[in-house]
Amino acid sequence: MEMSEILVTLSKFFSKIVQFLSDNLSDIGVIFTTIGAIFTAIGVIFTYYQIKKANIQKKIEYMMSIYNDFLKDKNMREIYYKIEYSTFVYDENFHTSEDEKNLDKLIEHFANI
Fold first, then answer.
1. What does the radius of gyration of the chain's CA atoms come to, in whole angstroms?
2. pLDDT of amino acid 24
3. DSSP 37
4. Where are the domains of the chain?
């Protein structure tokens, strides 16, 4: 449900409440309290959507920083492309080689996701 649909539904709901109160209650304090509660509810809804939007933005920023770190590191890119293009070789010379160090670095880097 879109935010505009929610606001329209809330507006209709709260206008019915205000109409009921104004028809059935003459106490002005109750009407003002109800109106205050309505504005508070609307504020809470807006705050919820703002927090949700901010969290999504933070996640995107985090993913982009991980990807940018990967792109900046030449060794991680080289071992990644060796794997992607099937030129990576795992044999008895792999251990203690630069490829092993670079592969460990690549795996550790993407384990943060």
1. 29
2. 67
3. H
4. 1-60, 73-113
